[in-house]
Amino acid sequence: MMSLPVQTKSKLKAGEILTLQVEELSPKAQGIAMVGGQSVFVKEGLPGDQVQAQLTRVRPNQIEAKLLKVESAAPERVTPLCQHFGPCGGCDLQ
Fold first, then answer.
1. Distance from CA of residue 54 to its chain's centroid?
2. Which residues contact 47 (CB under 8 A, 6 or more apart)?
């Protein structure tokens, strides 16, 4: 008889603030960091960034976080040319 893997419940909670090392980029352009064997998707995170992020959604199969602060930037990270980049999200000019 085949046994199914047991899913362990994450000890992470929404609202927690963590320091994360972003390792790769998801197909939806979110940074991916690993915590305890689980992927954490960090909006606006770049591979190579070390960031401070707040967990916004914790589900058994997906953890999401918002970027609070870039502690150590990836070499590819650049400062946006336009002062309105954050609120508007960018345009063809960017």
1. 9
2. 22, 23, 24, 25, 31, 74, 76
